[in-house]
Amino acid sequence: MKKVEAIIRPFKLEDVKLALVNAGIVGMTVSEVRGFGKQKGQVERYRGSEFTVEFLQKLKVEVVVDDEKVDAVLKSIAEAAKTGEIGDGKIFVSSVESVLRIRTGDIDGEAL
Fold it and tell me: Can you give the pTM of this predicted structure?
């Protein structure tokens, strides 16, 4: 099993959700996060003064999938989240040793 974490622009959430549902993914976790990368924040104006917002608002979408679904999930997220501009985000993949569904006690593949 793999955990796929995608950092995306907030306005792309609906597109990413639809792409994941179309790829057969039925559950995901979404968190509001802040950060910066090559974008290095942005300059904004407030009452005539300029200031730099260093940490930009992003969303983190997390899904855990069987190994054979990872490529489809990566492709779906990347296509749905892409604008072609700097700051589109990143996708991270890591191994998951085990999963337990609390309600039923299902383990690993059955818990997904």
Answer: 0.84
